[in-house]
Design a protein that fits this description.
Layout: E1 4-8, H1 13-24, E2 29-33, H2 46-50, H3 71-78, E3 81-83, E4 86-92, E5 97-102, E6 108-112, E7 115-118, E8 122-124, E9 137-139, H4 143-154, E10 160-164, H5 168-181, E11 184-189, H6 201-212, E12 216-220, E13 224-230, E14 233-239, E15 243-245, E16 248-251, E17 255-257, H7 260-264, E18 275-276, E19 288-290, E20 295-298, E21 305-306, H8 311-325, E22 339-342, E23 347-352, H9 355-360, E24 365-373, E25 384-392, E26 398-405, H10 408-424, H11 429-433, H12 449-461, E27 466-468, H13 470-478, H14 480-483, E28 486-489, H15 493-502, E29 506-508, H16 511-517, E30 527-530, H17 535-546, E31 552-555, H18 558-564
Helix pairs in contact: 1-8
């Protein structure tokens, strides 16, 4: 008798697991249930549909060869049954059955299974404030909501919009509405930075500056307290600090895993409701698999259970489950947390832990950043890249890397190179310093930026230089009347002279000049050095050290980093 497999959930992991199983074991009877009409869509593409980059919503539900992935497609091309508008309401593990309700007719029916796959996804956090039920207040996870938002924008009725939440989807939505439709957009984030938990403070300031430079208002450390409206539609968002006019609101404040079905069946779930699985993607019942946004997965950096809802990970897990449904022994080791997001001029990408996250996890961590061109300096087409490496001080173990660049492909290549090493090893700073990456002038410098940031981290860990962030440098400069710092500009003399002419406390001592004029630097005052990217500043620091001047800090990334965070002297 053919094995019966039931799959609950039809967005990413569910169809992937079902298709993989049918390829390996075509005699399997697979039935997939989903409570929506549209299935197997690229949810991560929704903001780009809202922004007009994707013309038709059905493109998100289609194959690369433009065939719509509907129930008929899966029946005719993949060999399994899909039941849409059908909600699985209960699992009877003893009888090995599920109960499903047709949402159109209300009819309930019981279906037997040999193996069960839970791909129930996650639910966006709903706004719990007065006025949340007003019209034009959306969460941006379903295609139906995306279509409604797009129609509102096309109708030109939306002049101002508010995005609540400064995570991936929230910022992508803000960019989409401001860039394509010219809408006045405000982002409200209750944490003290955008992209909290994935970007360091400095890089988050770069992201916020990119948004503000394109007329997107960013309000951090701010909480929405209510929404007001007229005629049943939202007109204003009220925070604990201000009132913002809005004809449309998108709530994007995170997700909650849909683990209720599993919990009610007696399966193990975490305190936040995520389903616990082993490396084979089996739940506490070996005949029930689960994966995707409804699951808790091991973080390979911390060794702890974590939660990271990403479509890419759901697809990889779906293949593992499909293989095991067909009798295989595939495993999913866990995640290191590799991500990417494109804003306006800048893209951001990262893997692993930020310095702040690492310290919260108990690591004695340091973050060291550099600014370097992504290609050979003599090649005509090139972009300046910010790259930050996070390492544990004592062991020199690499814990993460994040970056910012106007060329998203260049940045992604560097992050992915380190991500691959992090996933299958415990690399040290020295390993990344010697990491072999491809080289030709149109692609990289001979000493690639990924090697350079490891070299800079080595210099910090070995005590060869003391570094501060660009925002810390600006704070020192702002309070120069009280802190006695001696500020050195090691850029070419002309650049430093221009600033010194306006600010007498600014000392233009180029790298060339400091070789002979080092004695102009007082030995009894702390020194702060800045240059253009950090390279000349380090050499200037070494010159001073040779002459016994060692109370010196260098601003990481130089003036390039200062400008990227929106700072000025």
């Amino acid at each position: 008798m053919a094995q019966k497999v039931i799959v609950v959930g039809g967005v990413a992991l569910g169809p992937k697991a079902a298709c993989r199983c049918m390829r390996l074991a075509p005699d399997t009877e697979v039935t997939l249930f989903d409570e929506n009409t549209l299935i197997s869509y690229g949810g991560c593409g929704i903001p780009y549909f809202v922004g007009g980059d994707i013309a038709n919503v059905k493109d998100l539900c289609s194959t690369p060869y433009h065939t719509l992935r509907d129930p008929e497609f899966f029946r005719d091309m993949k060999g399994f049954t899909v039941k849409t508008m059908t909600r699985v309401t209960a699992i009877d593990r003893q009888a090995k059955t599920v109960t499903a309700r047709n949402l159109a007719t209300g009819e309930e029916q019981t279906y037997p299974y040999d193996k069960l796959v839970l791909a129930t996804g996650a639910t966006p956090r709903k706004p719990d404030v007065p006025g949340a039920d007003l019209g034009n207040v959306f969460t941006l996870t379903k295609l139906e909501a995306a279509d409604a938002i797009r129609k509102q924008m096309e109708g030109s009725s939306v002049k101002s919009a508010v995005v609540v939440g400064g995570g991936f989807i929230g910022l992508e939505a803000a960019v989409a509405m401001a860039d394509m439709w010219g809408c006045e957009v405000s982002v409200v984030e209750m944490m003290d930075q955008v992209l909290p938990g994935v970007l360091s403070k400095t890089l988050s300031m770069m992201a916020a500056h990119d948004l503000r430079s394109h007329n997107v208002s960013v309000y951090t450390s701010e909480k929405v307290v209510r929404m007001e409206g007229e005629g049943g539609k939202v007109t204003r968002v009220v925070t604990d600090k201000r009132e913002i006019e809005a004809q449309l609101v998108i709530y994007s404040t995170g997700f909650l895993p849909n683990g209720e079905l599993a919990k009610n069946a007696g399966l193990e779930v975490t305190s936040r409701g995520a389903i616990v699985v082993n490396e084979h993607m089996q739940t506490s019942d070996p005949d029930i698999y689960a994966g995707g946004d409804c699951c808790s997965i091991k973080n390979l950096i911390t060794g702890k259970q974590g939660y990271l809802p990403l479509g890419s990970m759901a697809n990889r897990q779906g293949r593992v489950i499909g293989t095991n449904l067909a009798g295989g022994n595939a495993t999913f080791p866990g995640y290191v947390g590799t991500w990417a997001v494109k804003l306006f001029d800048k893209s951001f990408c990262g893997v692993g832990l930020t310095p702040e996250m690492a310290r919260r996890e108990g690591f004695d961590a340091v973050g060291v950043s550099v600014e370097q061109l992504d290609k050979a300096h003599f090649y005509p087409e090139k972009s300046m890249m910010s790259l930050e490496l996070v390492a544990e001080k004592g062991t020199r173990r690499v814990l993460g890397m994040q970056g910012c660049c106007s060329d998203p492909d260049s940045l992604k290549a560097r992050i992915d190179a380190v991500a691959g090493v992090l996933q299958y090893a415990r690399p040290t700073v020295d390993d990344i310093s010697n990491l072999e990456v491809s080289y030709a002038p149109p692609f990289a410098a001979a000493m690639d930026v990924v090697n350079a940031v490891a070299n800079a981290t080595d210099n910090v860990l070995c005590g060869r230089m003391k570094v501060i962030t660009p925002e810390e440098f600006l704070e020192l400069w702002k309070n120069r009347d009280n802190n006695n710092y001696f500020f050195i500009d090691a850029r070419p003399q002309k650049a430093g002279d221009a600033v010194q002419a306006e600010h007498p406390d600014w000392h233009a001592l180029s790298l060339e000049a400091i070789q002979t004029r080092w004695n102009e630097v007082p030995g009894d005052r702390p020194v702060a050095i800045i240059c253009n990217t950090g390279l000349r500043g380090y050499d200037a620091l070494l010159v001073l050290a040779r002459h016994g001047i060692t109370d010196v800090v260098q601003s990481m990334g130089g003036m390039q980093a200062v400008l990227k965070i929106g700072g000025s002297i």
